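pasting for ref
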Amino acid sequence: MQKVNLGLTDKQRQGVIDLLNQGLADTYLLLVKTKKYHWDVVGPQFMTLHKLWQEHYEALTINVDAIAERVRTLGGYPVGTMEGFLKICSLKEHAGTVPNATGMVSNLLADHEQIVQNVRSSIDKCSEDFQDEGTADFLTGLMVQHEEIAWMLRSFMEGEGVASDGAKPATKKSMVGV
């Protein structure tokens, strides 16, 4: 690690760099998985999901670069190999499987939600343990992106209509005895 004078101790910077590298590994694996699903999706939702996942992997590509550059800004070096990513990644690869479109959406939703949880924890550690508000702010922006993508995927999974007032329509089961 290079000597850097940003008002953080070497221990604080290394702690943040470790958090960022773990986030980089998760983001990179999610990028690869999203791109693979973009290529492999079939069925009636093909065009919708194909286009949506292209938007997602393009955003993830930008985020991968931003996270790696934040590591360098702090004087560290980003993990840059698949072997390195897989060693520290919290997400699962699911190698050798090609789920149906709904399974793909479900897997990506779980991954984005896991990243949101990880990033929330990292934000707290950056602020409380390492006094690095700059990285905490940086991570907050990434978290908001993952929350939005998770919402989109969750909405796809729900597949239930909503009335113009925001209420879910009554189902036959809920109307029994009315």
